[in-house]
Amino acid sequence: MTTMEDRADIHDPEISAFMSQLPPGVFDFDEWTLETVAQRRAARAQDAVAALPETTTVSHEERVDDDVRVRVYSPPAPAAARPCVYWIHGGGYISGSGLTVDARLNRWAQALDCVVVSVDYRLAPEHPYPAPLLDCYAGMEWTVEHADRLGIDTGHILVAGSSAGAGLAAALTLFARDREGPRLGLQLLIYPMLDDRQSTPSSRREGAAVWGRPANALGWRAYLGPLGAEGADVPGYAAPARAQDLTGLPPACVVVGGADLFRDESVAYAARLLAAGVETELHVYPGVPHGFEVLVPTADVSRRCDADITGALRRALRPAHISACFRTPN
To answer: Hey, what CATH class is 6-325 in?
Structure first.
């Protein structure tokens, strides 16, 4: 459980003020166990979600087809083919849902004039690796196969995720590359969960806010199942930080908070992508914890993060339009 003393690493004044007002136990993930995951997951599912603005024009619908479960967000005006964001939700591999109406995804669909497909993958520990990754890949293939019906341009699809979802997004790009699957225009990794070994300084710090070391150990233990967290045989598809070859992957945008447990593994992965010749941008926001831009979306640091993310998406979704803006007139 996060205490006031544990929040000392949170230096951003707006985020710190928010965290200081939280009652004890709001973020109790460090108290979860394998035996209580299902019960606590069900309780979390009852939490209120951010409401959509009354002015939204985006339509969204749940689709189930061949065991693939997705929620599709579509702009209202008809179009021949739009770019697509394929979204993978977070939750430490043990919680969350891709079928909940998400205000951020709704905003992306409207502001970026794109289709957003949010996949609902099976969760650990009931369904350990590789089930969640295979679900994400199946959802990606389904999206491509139904592109005409969904109004999607298959030449402009990118993958995005947060936390465990970002870890799955990174793994999905590796999986798709090696299987010669759908080509992706960007991997947007929002504070990604990449490394089961917990060997970096930030991952070893006790008392990290929101998602701490005990929760992280549980998430990996549940996800890796028989492979065992920190074991010698964990493949890169399960924990992308272990992948040996990062060449040939789509461009990346990695964002993380300076007080996040995942800070160091995110920075290290971005550096390895760059070394492998992958075009990569990295944003580290000082003094903020895991999930900061969702917790306090009106904070200045959250607005900066949102602008960086939106900019990366816009450049990847509509590169021709961006190039035209800088074209020298005749």
So the answer is: alpha beta
